[in-house]
């Protein structure tokens, strides 16, 4: 991060509330297309897309060197089933049935990849019809299972990835996924986990994205406040069920070709279709620009849980702890883990600032190396954003009920340390 970008980011976030933003929540009918890697810098992406929280599409030139684009695709641009079977055939993968609605998603089963590819081949032969329905391989943690495979290289624009940095540190989970599906497979209307960013690269095939800037989805809620499963359903035109649909605007449409990467910002709801047999790689990620959005989302999620079980508040001795347990079961994280998340992010950046002359030490840790590569001012920016969110967390009444002074280190000590690191770095 250069000084100009640091100054721009500091100015923008000085009074920023933490709510999702994008296109000023107004109708938005254009998505920028980034053509050339050699003329588009990290600073360009940071200032023009991360800070304003606007989407963009990267051309296929950004993925030309990926192993998956060479090996996973046949010369005529189709999925290379033979290679996938040889390399990953015995892997167990999650598969969703796009023809069935279960609550507000599709039901999933687990199959071996070789079984799924057998289905897929048969599905193609029968003109994309099957008594089993339209099955879509979704959310496969391939990177976690096959870390040594030459699949892809994360573009520098997405390298400040706090979400995967944290989950890699505790070796529990990750938010890197592979999707594979036949023409006609699709993903229902949603916003991404924790209101994170996502980037999605098509290895082969073509997708259609229907996306809405933050706030626009409010007109799509039914009379009970629920969002639709499918925004193309004729049901939405029934004013007795969807009273505000007439006020909604058309979604922004993106047609994503093979090799292209789509960047979806925080809080942008979307629905996605595979227009051809398609393979894609997706990451969810959080950084200093949207960590406050994640924190706002978690507060909203806890408030929803508290409303759901408020009738037991007076009779349940550990009611506030049970609310945290329920929130974690719904979202995958609670307030204590969110504190640990911020702690890991802060400690890695403090290390880089305190050891910035020791490239050898940083290189032993891939995320610290990535932080070093983005520059000292980026580490400072990250710490400033972490301090802002941690200060808000520490003042939160529900967090105080968790006895945070028993955490290691206590929040006030971590805040003192990271503020000292910022002050020292800016001397």
From TrEMBL:
It catalyses: L-lysyl-[protein] + 2-oxoglutarate + O2 = 4-hydroxy-L-lysyl-[protein] + succinate + CO2. PROSITE patterns: JMJC. It holds the Pfam family Cupin_8. It comes from the Eukaryota. Residues 143-302 form the JmjC domain. SMART domains: JmjC. Belongs to the JMJD6 family. PANTHER family: 2-OXOGLUTARATE AND IRON-DEPENDENT OXYGENASE JMJD4, ARGININE DEMETHYLASE AND LYSYL-HYDROXYLASE JMJD. This is Jumonji domain-containing protein 4. It comes from Gekko japonicus (Schlegel's Japanese gecko).
């Amino acid at each position: 991060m250069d000084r100009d970008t640091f100054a721009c980011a500091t100015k923008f976030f000085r009074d920023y509330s933490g709510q999702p933003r994008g296109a000023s929540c107004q109708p938005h009918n254009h998505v920028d297309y980034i053509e050339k890697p050699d003329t588009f810098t990290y600073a360009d992406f940071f200032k023009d897309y991360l800070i304003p929280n606007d989407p963009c599409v990267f051309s296929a030139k950004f993925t030309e060197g990926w192993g998956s684009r060479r090996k996973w695709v046949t010369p005529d641009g189709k999925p290379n089933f033979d290679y996938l079977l040889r390399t990953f055939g015995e892997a167990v993968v999650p598969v969703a049935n796009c023809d069935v609605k279960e609550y507000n998603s599709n039901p999933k089963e687990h199959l071996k990849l070789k079984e799924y590819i057998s289905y897929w081949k048969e599905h193609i032969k029968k003109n994309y019809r099957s008594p089993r329905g339209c099955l879509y391989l979704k959310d496969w943690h391939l990177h976690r299972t096959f870390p040594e495979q030459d699949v892809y290289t994360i573009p520098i624009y997405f390298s400040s990835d706090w979400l995967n940095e944290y989950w890699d540190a505790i070796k529990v989970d990750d938010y890197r996924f592979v999707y594979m599906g036949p023409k006609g497979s699709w993903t229902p209307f949603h916003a991404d986990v924790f209101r994170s960013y996502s980037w999605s690269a098509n290895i082969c095939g073509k997708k259609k994205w229907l996306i809405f800037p933050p706030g626009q989805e409010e007109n799509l809620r039914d009379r009970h406040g629920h969002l639709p499963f499918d925004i193309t359903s004729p049901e939405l035109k029934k004013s007795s069920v969807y009273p505000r649909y007439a006020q909604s605007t058309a979604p922004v449409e993106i047609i994503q070709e093979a090799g292209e990467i789509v960047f979806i910002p925080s809080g942008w709801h979307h629905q996605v279709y595979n227009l051809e047999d398609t393979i894609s790689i997706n990451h969810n990620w959080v950084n200093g620009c949207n960590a406050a959005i994640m924190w706002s989302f978690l507060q909203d999620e806890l408030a929803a849980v508290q409303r759901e079980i408020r009738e037991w508040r007076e009779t349940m001795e550990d009611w506030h702890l049970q609310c945290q347990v329920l929130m974690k079961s719904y979202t995958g994280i609670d307030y204590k883990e969110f504190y640990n998340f911020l702690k890991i992010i802060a400690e890695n950046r403090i290390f880089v600032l305190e050891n910035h002359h020791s490239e050898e030490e940083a290189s032993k840790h891939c995320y610290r190396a990535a932080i070093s590569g983005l520059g000292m001012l980026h580490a400072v920016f990250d710490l400033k954003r972490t301090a802002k969110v941690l200060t808000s967390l520490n003042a939160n009444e529900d967090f105080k009920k968790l006895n945070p002074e028993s955490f290691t280190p206590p929040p006030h000590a971590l805040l003192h340390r990271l503020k000292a690191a910022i002050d020292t770095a800016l001397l």
